[in-house]
Amino acid sequence: MNRKTLVLAAAMGLLAPVLAACGDTESGSGDGDAIVVGTTDRFTASEEEGLAPLDPAWAYDVGTWNILRQTVQTLMVQPRGEGEPVPDAAKSCGFTDAGNERYSCTLRDGLKFSNGDPITAQDVKYSIDRAISLEGDSGVFALLSTIDTVETQGDSEVIFHLKAADATFPYKLSTPVAGIVNKDDYAQNKLREGFDVEGSGPYTMEAKVEDGALVRATFTKNPSYKGALQVNNDKVEMVAYDSADAMGDALKDGEIDVMTRSMSPEQIQQLSNATDGEIELVETPGLEIRYLAFNTKAESVKDKAVRQAMAQVINRDELVGKVYGSQAEPLFSLVPAGVAGHSNAFFNKYGDPNVAQARELLEDADVETPVQLTLHYTTDHYGPATKTEFEQLSKQLNDSGLFQTDIQGTTWDKFRPAGQKGKYDVYGMGWFPDFPDADAFIAPFLDEDNFLNSPYSNTEIRKDLIPASRRQADRLNASKSFTRIQDIVADEVPVLPLWQGKQYLAARDDITGTAYALNSSSTLQLWELGRGVSG
């Protein structure tokens, strides 16, 4: 029997997924062998990328966060089927003032770290203060930038005093940087190196490391966990593969039960077209975006006319069609479709690709053509189609006659720090939002201490528009500020959005809970998986 499952967006890309084929919504029993999950994410501890990849005060990519979300508990958590975050380590949380500047949480009774140590409000304060003070080079601490002070009252109440109103603060408390850690395992003034993780989340983790890389993580159900999540299995193993093809072969051969990011477009198409077999494909709404980032101080692109001309030339429809097909959609703003506050700012400004208008932009700015550029991309982080994507981008720019470009691929452990250090004039990045709100697509790129360490700075965005958006408890009312921000970005082009992707998971047909194993922010929710009966 074919158990292929397609999960389609019900509305706006943020609603709970609904199965369109055989039932897959029943919880697993938690019995049986470990469920084995494959991934092509790389987990390395190196001098270049950082020796503490799994310290919550450092980790800031979708792969490492997907490990921490299983192991390190937060006060709040994203609920099943999206929606606003709900208490997890806390039993209640909320703003206690009309101005959204004082946020209080009361902890659940009997919380313990996995080693049995009790968790108190002081541990929460220690963890948050530590993440802020360490100022990890990854920039993840900026998520907590609106905190002024953290206060405790007794052992169970934590009060956050904010520098300014921040309606998104509950979401930020659901991210791993706000994870609760034990001071005996995590020093106050030093990052924890290596791959050991301790917390109070739904699982404990044992790491298998080879040549400085995590190759297998074994997650075992934490009997001490108290929180909002229902854990439907006793053990999950995550195995890292060097390629999507190797991961796909492992699924076909029964070596793994589930494969996640990143599958190739060809694999997804084959699974989607399959009419029989024991593997099902799950498609869920996604908020992943891809974009070009610019070092706006670099000689080749410091004139915004160059960046504007690239925005005028690049044909997103052609790019998506040739590389990703129906698995992605053109994106004309940092804020993707389906998120309140989205606008098609780049299309509104540039319209359809037009070489003549791009040439006029460069001529008016006295920019000599062809502009010579190297487009940098990572070879092993965003999936096997990335090289093809950059070949297409380079061809489009070169065919205009206005640019002379080549491409250069680098492994993620070298690519990421090089981008942060300003060594690339133009480079390709992806983004999986910290939480499903427009702020998560704006502040990490444009605020102080931003994720890219970009030299670009706009005073109106930082001092007026971002703070104004955070004062709006009703996020629809923040749309005016977000629209203005997107218009500024389309004009000044510090980043150039390219496409918005769907997300996929493939599983053997005896695995249950796959409809909820990924949320729209690409959070891998291993606790949803169970083992049922093969059809």
Task: Give an overview in words.
Residues 1-20 form the signal peptide. This is ABC transporter substrate-binding protein. Helices cover 26% and strands 23% of the residues. With 535 residues, the protein is of the alpha+beta class. Helix 6 (304-313) runs antiparallel to helix 9 (355-364) and helix 7 runs antiparallel to helix 10. The longest helix has 14 residues, at 121-134. It starts with 6 loop residues before the first strand and ends with a strand. Residues 1-31 have low confidence and may be disordered.
Specify Rg, calculated over alpha carbons.
23 Å
Shape: globular
The biggest sheet, with number of strands, parallel, antiparallel or mixed sense and barrel status, is: 11 strands, mixed
Mean model confidence by pLDDT: 91
Which quaternary structure do these chains form?
single chain
Distance between the termini: 6 Å
Structural class: alpha+beta
Poorly predicted runs are 1-31
- In helices, the fraction of residues equals 25-40%
In what range is the share of β-strand residues?
15-25%
Per DSSP, the total helix count is: 14
